[in-house]
Amino acid sequence: MPIFTVAARGALVLAALLSAPGFAQDAPVRFVVPYPPGGAADQIARLVAQEMSKAGGAPIIVENKPGAAGMIAADHVARAKPDGKTFFVGSNAPLVVNQALYAKMTYDPARDFVPVSGMAKSPLLLVVRHDLPAPDIKALIALGKQAPGKLTMGSAGTGNITYLAGEYAVSKLGFQVTHVPYQGSAPAIVGLMGSSTDMMFDALPSCMTQAQAGKIRPFALLDDKRFAGLPDVPTAAELGYTGIDASAWFGLVAPAGTPAAVVERVNQEVNHALGQPDLQRKLTAIGAVSMPGNAKVFATFVQAERDRWLPVARDLGLKAQ
């Protein structure tokens, strides 16, 4: 039996991918991102697409279609031809949270898509405007309790995990805020830097650089361990606030009816890219970690997120704004 090298196995995966429908050299593949450029979803999708492109094959176009808590892009992909040419960069909001917030949706997250692969995830960070008169999270809570609803909380949009996890966290911390939704994390962080809002729970890729530069102040990481890029920022649990960990995550799904062979081959190519040290370094640099695994692993993960967050949204009585 011949012994294949890692390079040879990678070549076989690439050859299989190139022979799949929609991955011909002359047929560009689209990764549709439901948020504006600059946010976590956009950065991660572009990094993965760039790494995949190094192996050759069809060019990958990252297309931004922001709006309606990710539902414009989700509906667009759900209606696309299931030929392996169009994929949705799905995340917490369009694949999970929107089900609890919207009475009517033009697509069914479980029925209209087939999971392909996880890409990356990032813990949320509690950040406040640089001139907020509160030196730490304890003072922030006290400030919030003094005037319920006076503090404003930006988010990447209604339905986004930055909204749901933020509302859940402040409810656990014992104060109230007024929600200010933006169309994506990037504009929300711009609003926070300009003191248009007071605070935000955001994924690291879209807020870490500003936090490191002192343009906004980081108070707590919603994860089980500190992040190397912000070594002085404690976790919420370290500060005594447990049970509020949350992450933004991103992965590929395809229109329902996409052939299983295509799903498997694209999954292999995504995982090949995620396994490259260069991509892993780039993800770490922006505050994300890879989410490797087959399509079933990603499907199980998404279902677990539904089981956790949908009851939370309903218990809080959150609705689309």
UniProtKB/TrEMBL annotation:
Give UniProt keywords alphabetically.
Signal
Signal peptide as annotated in the record: 1-24
Q: Which domain of life is it from?
A: Bacteria
Concerning Gene3D superfamilies, the annotation shows:
Bordetella uptake gene, domain 1, Periplasmic binding protein-like II
Family, according to the entry, reads as follows: Belongs to the UPF0065 (bug) family.
What PANTHER family does the record tag this protein with? BLR1237 PROTEIN, TRICARBOXYLATE-BINDING PROTEIN
- What is the name of this protein? Tripartite tricarboxylate transporter substrate binding protein
